Amino acid sequence: MALLPILRYPDPRLHKVAKPVQVVDDRIRTLVRDMAETMYEAPGVGLAATQVDVHERVVVIDVSEDNDDLRVLINPEIIWKSEETQVYEEGCLSVPGIYDEVQRAARIRVRTLDEQGETHEFDAEGLLAVCVQHELDHLMGKVFVEYLSPLKQNRIKTRLRKQEREALKA
Length: 170
Ligand code: GNR
Ligand code: NI
Hints:
Blueprint: H1 26-41, E1 46-48, E2 58-61, E3 71-81, E4 85-90, E5 100-105, E6 107-113, E7 119-125, H2 126-139, H3 150-169
Antiparallel strand pairs: 1-2, 2-3, 3-6, 4-5, 6-7
Residues 44-48, 51, 88, 90-94, 130-131, 134-135, 138 line the site of ligand GNR.
């Protein structure tokens, strides 16, 4: 088991596009286990491989109260989105301390491989739907702050760069 360092916005590596996993093998299963450990330790409700500087389509999610419902998504695709939307106050482990509202589809259907390489489909709503869309954005190189106004994005960049400098001094 290993905790993986999480990239912080505005790191340019957060904008790389992840490639599909070719084979679900022990290398991928080790990545999944390390990502899950990193997510639970953070703590967060989801983590995309992009955030740990691995540019392959792997995501872990656990939106349960008791942290006992890990979902492993490999090569996930959203195959249906509702026209109805919901607004949710989002945060991101790569954008610490910043929370803002994002509008996304209220309900989605997801097709994915699990860590055994088996295909599954599931429907999601509420926080799970938010989280899946947030994580799939990461795999496309998109961070939630890119939905905010350019003014807000610049303020967030300035604030996080300053935090980074203070952290290096300390
Ligand atoms: O831990 C997280 N919480 C969260 C809250 C609202 C909307 C999305 C999220 S995902 C985030 C973890 C993370 O950064 N995943 O990429
Ligand atoms: Ni995130």
